[in-house]
Design brief:
The complex is a heterodimer.
Chain A lengths: L25 H30 L2 H7 L12 H7 L3 H32 L6 H13 L4 H10 L17 H13 L2 H9 L4 H12 L1 H17 L2 H6 L8 H14 L15 H30 L8
Chain B lengths: L6 H11 L3 H5 L40 E2 L21 E7 L11 H10 L3 E7 L3 H11 L5 E4 L6 H8 L4 H4 L8 H4 L3 H4 L3 E2 L2 E2 L2 E4 L5 E6 H6 L9 H11 L7 E3 L2 H11 L6 E4 L2 E4 L4 H16 L14 H7 L2 E7 L2 H10 L7 E4 L11 E2 L4 E7 L4 H13 L7 H8 L6 E4 L2 E4 L1 H6 L14 E2 L5 H15 L1 E2 L9 H24 L4 H31 L1
Parallel strand pairs in B: 1-18, 2-3, 2-4, 9-12, 14-19
Antiparallel strand pairs in B: 4-15, 5-6, 7-15, 8-12, 8-13, 10-11, 16-17
Classes of the chains: A mainly alpha, B alpha/beta.
Subcellular location (chain B): Cell envelope
Main location (chain B): other
Organism (chain B): Streptomyces spinosisporus
Chain lengths: 309, 541
């Protein structure tokens, strides 16, 4: 058995050898730790405050007059108030459905469009690319968009929440650039082996572009999940509203109750600030759940175009 | 005009309603109906409902009926059965509350439809988004049967004339007697419905006694203070006695509304003053304003105003609830809300309200509020359809003491509320179910009632009697000014947030205030004055 010679190889470089990455003196390391601790606290404490406030009872919130850092008598009243009545749970289903179906449609449309545009010499790709770029420069107004959706017969339909925003020109251009940067030899080889465009796309281009597709998918998913304005203008029945629009009524409307426009009350909802905190938690949870699974691709994906070669 | 309902007109009306001032200022070919026609519109007769006797009777001047308890056997609002059988009714309106569960899960909504005799479909829009949704719906041209039209919607006369039904043939004079609950709405709430030479909507009546200067009666008692100052000097002393800046306790929160209270002491104009047909804006009354601002400076200097009050929005109610401030100017419905929100966690929590005394003693004034929230306009339709809609909305205006009022405000027994004696007390499901915005469809005149306790009813009634006694109305209320509709609030707010608050804190001087008022005149103030004067004169022509 021959030994593997390391002669001629560069010695592995440890991180400590990188300038600026040295461990340094204990004092320096302590100072760095403190700075990092402060940075973490700046992110963690507001999140903790929101979580605590959502769990705080009315007495504590009335006493502090706002956010609390730790709930003295934790309660789920705010979540019960939000999830009671079935409206929020149904809206959550609507949101999940819109996000999943919308993301799939958006990805399908964007990938196929980007692939077509990335192939040199494909029919009409320059004018279509120009149209895409123009749609980035000139955004249609709300009323023309509404009239178009209305004429397509999509008012009060879930499709009105998906189709008008199904293709995002920016995402298509990013994907197109990624596809165009793939070595042409791969597609040429596939073509020689008898593969058609569809097979090349699904068997070669897409597997090589997982990171880019994951990032674009995340962009689409987040935008579908967060969108409320389309639902506001296109959906007439509140029973069909997505979660974000229902939650918006709690955030915006409760702050307006002070204007004295409520009916004769008989019981009070949990304090506004607790409801708002619970809303924040509810609305970030799905993204927080999805993010770890996509994080690997996301970190790769955000490097797209950063380094050439 | 009604015949010229072209796509272009509809689109332009929609664009105008999108609250784009630049577009609203452009000529677009939509003819404005003559103001003189408004003088010919006869308002509906006022026929007060006598079916339930109040414990504390209201007055014509504006004190609301007070009820200690809900009648054990509510009067049937529709004794002859559902009055509006026919095709379903689509209503688009707004809500300030979280949106209610859909009809399939909301027994209140289902029973309301059953009582009316047809399906009532609500398109509910959060209040902040209503102007946009309204503009788009108008632009789309596919209108629901009834829509809430906000007082701030631009181009109202032309839009109403083109798209909505003139209800004067149905409701003017004695015509309204066919709809007894609409006839129970006071005349003052109907007057803003007169636009474009017709009666273009149904009112959503509100109390004319406006807002109230609430105070924490428990804190006053604890500190042994008299909560009814007889002059500004006594008010200042009271504020000093309440305030303890070292422990973050202050008398007042919002400096702007505290200024209103001082202006009430000085008999300042309620937005506008009319003398011989000439209108003067409240901030144009220089002597009164100067004196009021100086008084505010004294309050600020004495550290009686919460230091964050100048920049904070929407926290005053919470500060009042947790005792950071002890005096807070708020809408009258805040009385019950405060008791529910803060009384639930603080058994000592007690509130009452004061009326402004004269600045140097004697009687002060109290500014009247708007007697109507907005109008519910009905889409143009054949006579039978309009009558069906009016019968439905008549039922939605059934007053306190009827079974339909109980249903609208408290829902269904067992599901939404439980009786405490004769009084319905909402549970948390009821709170969301009653979010159905019937209050913003049309409504009965408001009443004073607190199911949990009779004492706040007496206190509110007593306050309203004192307030109505010195009530100052806004002469421009109910008159239409396009400039005021599109620019009024912004221009007013700019002056309050800039030079007025600056003067109170000492960062602006009197010249800055005067310059701001001069600028207001140039940039639209004089125009809106002219429009109000014209509208006022046209009604008296």
């Amino acid at each position: 058995m021959s030994t593997v010679s390391t002669a001629g190889r560069r010695p592995a470089r440890s991180y400590s050898a990188i300038p600026g990455q040295s461990g340094g003196s204990p004092l320096w390391r302590t100072a760095k730790s403190l700075v990092l601790l402060v940075c973490v606290a700046l992110v963690a404490i507001p999140f903790l405050a929101v979580l605590s406030t959502s769990l705080a009872d009315a007495a504590q919130i009335n006493e502090t007059g706002g956010f609390v850092l730790w709930p003295s008598h934790p309660t789920l009243d705010s979540y019960r108030a939000l999830l009671g009545g079935g409206l929020v749970s149904r809206a959550m289903l609507v949101s999940v459905g819109i996000t999943v179906v919308g993301t799939l449609i958006s990805l399908a449309a964007s990938i196929t469009l980007a692939y077509g545009l990335s192939r040199p010499g494909s029919y009409g790709h320059k004018p279509i690319l120009m149209l895409l770029v123009l749609s980035l420069l000139f955004v249609p107004g709300v009323i023309p968009s509404y009239l178009l959706v209305k004429q397509l017969g999509l008012i009060n339909s879930y499709w009105s929440l998906i189709l008008p925003t199904a293709v995002n020109a920016f995402n298509v251009i990013v994907l197109r650039s990624f596809f165009a940067a793939l070595p042409g030899e791969l597609t040429d080889a596939a073509r020689i082996d008898g593969a058609g465009e569809w097979r090349i796309l699904t068997r070669i281009v897409m597997p090589l572009s997982k990171a880019a597709i994951a990032v674009i998918g995340l962009f689409y998913a987040v935008s579908y999940w967060n969108a409320f304005f389309n639902a506001l203008i296109y959906i007439n029945q509140s029973a069909k509203w997505p979660l974000q629009l229902i939650l918006q009524t709690y955030v915006v409307n409760n702050s307006a109750i002070g204007q004295g426009q409520t009916a004769d009350p008989g019981a009070a909802l949990p304090p506004t600030v607790a409801l708002q905190a619970a809303i924040l938690i509810l609305s970030v949870v799905p993204i927080v759940i999805v993010y770890p699974f996509l994080q690997r691709h996301l970190t790769k994906g955000v490097m797209i175009g950063a380094v050439k070669g | 005009m009604g015949a010229h309902l072209t796509r272009r007109n509809v689109l332009l009306a929609g664009l105008a309603a999108a609250a784009v001032p630049s577009l609203a200022a452009c000529g677009d070919g939509v003819a404005e109906p003559s103001l003189a026609e408004n003088a010919d519109v006869r308002l509906p007769d006022y026929v007060p409902y006598r079916g339930v006797q109040p414990d504390l009777p209201g007055t014509k001047a504006g004190v609301l009926n007070g009820y200690y308890h809900y009648p054990k056997n509510p009067v049937k609002a529709a004794p002859d059965g559902p009055p509006a059988k026919g095709p379903s009714i689509d209503v688009m309106t707004l809500t300030y509350s979280p949106v209610p569960p859909p009809a399939s899960k909301n027994p209140l909504w289902q029973r309301l439809s059953d009582s009316i005799g047809t399906t009532l479909n609500y398109e509910i829009v959060p209040v902040a988004n209503y102007p946009v949704k309204f503009a788009l719906t108008i632009a789309g041209g596919d209108l629901p049967d009834a829509m809430l039209v906000l007082p701030t919607a631009p181009r109202q006369p032309a839009m109403l004339n083109a798209l909505f039904e003139d209800l004067s043939p149905y409701l003017s004079g004695s015509g309204v007697r066919r709809y007894p609950y609409l006839a129970n709405i006071p005349t003052s709430s109907w007057s803003p419905m007169v636009l474009a030479g017709g009666l273009y909507g149904l009112p959503m009546p509100r109390a004319n006694s406006g807002s109230a200067m609430f105070y924490r009666a428990d804190i006053m008692k604890q500190k042994d203070l008299d909560p009814n100052p007889k002059s500004f000097k006594e008010f200042l002393q009271l504020c000093k006695d309440i305030s303890d800046p070292k422990h973050a306790k202050y008398a007042n929160g919002d400096p702007a509304v505290t200024l209103y209270f001082i202006l009430e002491m000085l008999h300042g104009a309620n937005e506008w003053r009319e003398q011989g047909g000439r209108f003067t804006w409240w901030l144009e009354e220089s002597d009164i304003l100067h004196q009021a601002l100086d008084a505010m400076r004294q309050l600020v200097k004495a550290q009686t105003i919460h230091p964050d009050g100048f920049t904070t929005v929407g926290k005053f109610k919470d500060w009042f609830g947790n005792g950071q401030i002890a005096i807070n100017y708020d809408g009258l419905t805040a009385w019950n809300q405060n008791l529910l929100q803060y009384g639930a966690t603080n058994p000592k929590f007690e509130i009452d309200a004061m009326v402004a005394p004269g600045f140097d003693g004697g009687k002060g004034t109290h500014w009247a509020g708007n007697t109507n929230f907005a109008m519910l306009s009905l889409k143009k339709a054949p006579r039978e359809r309009i009558e069906q809609l009016l019968h439905a909305f008549n039922l939605l205006a059934s007053p306190f003491g009827t079974d339909l009022y109980l249903l609208r405000k408290y829902g269904v027994e067992g599901h939404d509320f439980a009786y405490k004696g004769a009084d319905p007390v909402l549970n948390t499901v009821g709170v969301t179910d009653t979010g159905l915005p019937t209050t913003f469809t049309t409504d009965a005149p408001q009443s004073i009632y607190f199911p949990q306790d009779a004492e706040p009813v007496r206190l509110q009634y007593e306050f309203q009697k004192r307030a109505v006694d010195v009530l100052v109305t806004n002469p421009a209320y109910g008159l239409y000014s396009e400039t005021n509709t599109t620019l009024g609030n912004t221009m007013r707010q700019n002056i309050i947030e800039g030079p007025l608050k600056g003067y109170m804190r000492g960062s602006a001087d009197w010249n800055d205030v005067q310059d701001a008022v001069k600028n207001w005149r140039r940039s639209g103030g004089d125009k809106m004055r002219g429009e109000f004067e014209q509208a006022w004169a046209a009604l008296r022509a």
